[in-house]
Amino acid sequence: MIGEFPSVAAFVGAVRPEIPVHLFRPHRMAQAAREFVSGFCGETLFAVKCNAHPLVLETLWAEGIRLFDVASPMEIRRVAETLPGAVMFYHHPAKTPGQIAVAWETGLRHFAVDCIAELEKVAALTGTGMIPVVRLAIPKGSGAVYDLSTKFGATPDVFVVTLKRAVALGLSPAVTFHVGSQCLDPGAFRLGMSLAVELLDRAGVSVGLMDVGGGFPAYYRSTAAPPLSAYFDMIRQTHAALTEPRGIRLLCEPGRALVAEGGSLLVRVNLRKPDSVYLNDGIFGGLAETYWGKAALSLPYRVVDFLGRPRMGAVGGFTAFGPTCDGNDILPWPLMLPVDVADGDYIEFNLIGAYGREMAAGYNGMRSDAVAVIGQDFAGHLR
Ligand SMILES: *Cc1c(COP(=O)(O)O)cnc(C)c1O
Q: 22 CB under 6 A from ligand 1?
């Protein structure tokens, strides 16, 4: 942690960093957490994989987030050390015996499974009180930028037999699904909830808990999605009609929508050529998700000079290269930058609070973990 600064200009003026720096805006994370805590008709878990920094965990905790979705011993240790009172759900559906042991000994009781083999593996290594959270795959075309059901999640038939097997083992299962990340259609949640209820009825199994997953959107340059309140309304209506009458409580586990707006990435222009810029971070670093999301996840950005003063002049198109020696290290969309952009300027990319620092690889020895806190909102995206 480099420190706290009232604005990006104050930070650049004081530090003039040569490495990429993640700028956190905890007040924006707190705001998003309040939206979920007051708007979602159930309890909210935070999906730790999208930002496991202690400051993020503490900020969400202070707003009333008590439950955390983890997927590795590292994430378990991080949450346990930072927030001793937190309750964690192990929502990775393919675990090793050692990982299960770490989780069980740390006190975790909820374990995601999406087939009988994983259910029996976890059951054999844990004791009474283990709650299998059976994950259902969501049919394709649910309106998300990322499909999260091709890799994990049971097909309807496997979902039904896994639930029945859990009951036969004397366990009380819960159910979950993930509509896909950056889901643009609130109707996907109704689809997931109704499919899960239909299959519970087919299995003749009742559950006390349904986790409707993450997938709530952040608002990128190209995003045409309704506001979060539309998702909450859709889920509340479906709950009233389908799950509440069956005595099922709801959980959700957003990542992106809680923290994307709470962080930006400050990248330095290391070299300017006539039609291109060479940046100190790229798709192998803090901009990794941009490579997969392409135009669907295009980030708002702005340019400041080495004293932190915004460059506001006429713009032109630039190819943006990352810092590694790999020829593929190019941003998937050209940047519109002021034509007087110069070596030593900075580009601030917004919406990097989720899947930014966490996804960065150490290729070419160029990973930066540097974090500074900024008191002011991001403003002034270049068009
Ligand atoms: C990634 C993930 C999430 C968070 O998804 P977002 O799209 O960031 O909200 C939640 N649950 C599981 C199981 C995940 O893998």
A: no
* Cβ–Cβ under 8 Å, residues 333 and 325: no
Q: How many angstroms separate the alpha carbon of residue 70 from the centre of ligand 1? A: 10
Looking at residues 239-253, what average pLDDT do you find?
A: 98
CATH class belonging to 27-259: alpha beta
Lowest mean pLDDT among 70-79, 140-149, 178-187, 211-220: 140-149
Distance 22 CA to ligand 1 centre (A): 21
How far apart CA 268 and CA 279 sit, in angstroms, is 6
46 lines ligand 1 (CB under 6 A): no
Tell me how far apart the terminal alpha carbons of the chain are, to the nearest angstrom.
Answer: 31
Query: What integer pLDDT is reported at residue 336 of this predicted model?
Result: 96
**Per-residue pLDDT averaged across 235-263, rounded?**
98
Q: Give Cα separations from 349 to 14, 270, 369 (angstroms).
A: 20, 16, 16
CA-based nearest residue to 112, from 52, 161, 33, 178: 178
Q: Which atom of ligand 1 is nearest to the CA of 254?
A: 9
* CA 243/CA 260 separation, integer angstroms: 30
Tell how far the Cα of 254 is from the centroid of ligand 1, in angstroms.
Answer: 6
Pair type for strands 131-136 and 301-304: unpaired
Instruction: Name which residue sits closest to atom 5 of ligand 1, judged by CA.
Output: 214
Token pair of 10, please?
A: 């104050």
CATH 2.40.37.10 residue spans of the chain: 3-23+262-374
Among 143, 148, 138, CA closest to 187: 143
CA 298 to chain centroid, in Å, comes to 16
| 230-256 burial: b if 16+ Cβ within 10 Å, else e | ebbebbbebbeebbeeeebbbbbbbbb
CATH 2.40.37.10 fits 3-23+262-374, yes or no: yes
Please report which helix (H) or strand (E) contains residue 3, including its range. Answer: strand 3-5
Residue 149 DSSP label: T
pLDDT at residue 142, rounded to an integer: 66
Structure tokens at 32: 């998003």
Residues contacting residue 239 through CB under 8 Å, at least 6 positions apart: 41, 42, 193, 250
